[in-house]
Write a structure and sequence with these properties.
311 residues, alpha/beta, two-stranded parallel ribbon
């Protein structure tokens, strides 16, 4: 199959490329800068590159017309500008370019939506779904909560906070429940729904077997790393103070921290298990996903001879 991947330089995209190649698919990556992709990807010689900035429609090189399926894995919430407007424009330009091909299915990774009172982040993801639905190809949406894997913004926040702070005073949102999922399970679902007609024009929640609060996730991380940690919840910390706290203690930007904090007011738990009738998969537990993420981080640090970020 010929597969187009938008967001090839992103966290999910870089990990999906080898999965698709291993399955024997021809992968076309949409990138803004071919040189940057060649410098950072070990798979650059095994994929076809097309260039384009999705925020500038005139810059987008024509997609191959014989594309079978397309992944849209582009997110802009770390941008300093209005990320919701950027995400909508990017999705519109993508659909407009994709409609010129014979693509049968587009696949989007979104966030779990359990409430009408959504954060700006989840509201934006929902709007992107609506924009993508306007395209000619059938849309499949996978909705996930926190993704656990080395390099994931959510995992890096959990890691940084737990590693650096023996005693933590955390905001009220640390008691919000979610259903984390390991990165390898996300990739498995993304690959399994491709050109599966049972998934066409449907939304699916995906998640691991555990339902945990953010506080419980940090304490479980401490257990995996054999760290003694104490966490105290303070109910009166404002979202703005919480965002600055995350920004200064962790490696994420203030804009990204602000988006994540605003999202944490919403529970992100699977209410729809329809995916289980289509994709047979036993997902990793949260602790198993943590073990793999920590092992990957330590291996990467040893290989690159850089200081170990875990300690």
């Amino acid at each position: 199959m010929k597969v187009l991947l938008a967001g090839a330089n992103g966290y999910i995209g870089t990990r999906l490329i080898p999965v698709l190649l291993e399955k024997g698919h021809d992968v076309i990556c949409l990138v803004r800068d071919k040189r940057r992709f060649h410098e950072h990807s070990e798979f650059s010689e095994r994929v076809t590159l097309v260039t384009g900035d999705l925020l500038r429609e005139s810059s987008i090189e024509a997609f191959p017309t014989d594309v079978d399926a397309a992944y849209y894995l582009v997110h802009s919430m770390s941008q300093a500008q209005d990320f919701a407007a950027l995400e909508a424009l990017s999705a519109y330009n993508f659909v407009h370019a994709l409609d010129k091909t014979n693509c049968r299915q587009s696949i989007f990774l979104s966030g779990i939506i359990n409430s009408e009172n959504l954060s700006r982040h989840l509201e934006s993801r929902k709007h992107v779904e609506d924009v993508l639905k306007e395209g000619k190809s059938a849309l499949t949406v996978l909705r996930a909560a926190i993704i656990i894997g080395s390099g994931s913004a959510s995992f890096e926040i959990i890691r940084d906070l737990t590693e650096k702070l023996p005693i933590m005073t955390v905001p009220r949102w640390a008691n919000t429940r979610c259903q984390p999922i390991g990165i390898r399970d996300v990739l498995g679902y993304l690959e399994s729904v491709m050109l599966n007609e049972k998934t066409f024009n449907h939304n699916f929640d995906i998640g691991g077997p555990d339902i945990l609060t953010f506080k419980e996730m940090m304490l479980t991380y401490a257990k995996v790393r054999h760290l003694k940690r104490r966490i105290i919840t303070i109910p009166f910390l404002s979202p703005k103070i919480s965002s600055y706290w995350l920004h200064f203690v962790t490696s994420v930007s203030y804009t990204l921290a602000q988006s994540l904090v605003n999202s944490m007011k919403n529970e992100t738990i699977m209410h729809d298990h329809a995916i289980d009738d289509i994709v047979l998969r036993q997902c990793l537990t949260y602790e198993e996903a943590l073990q793999l993420a920590c092992t990957f981080n330590q291996t990467k640090d040893l290989v690159t001879n850089e200081p170990n970020n875990i300690n």
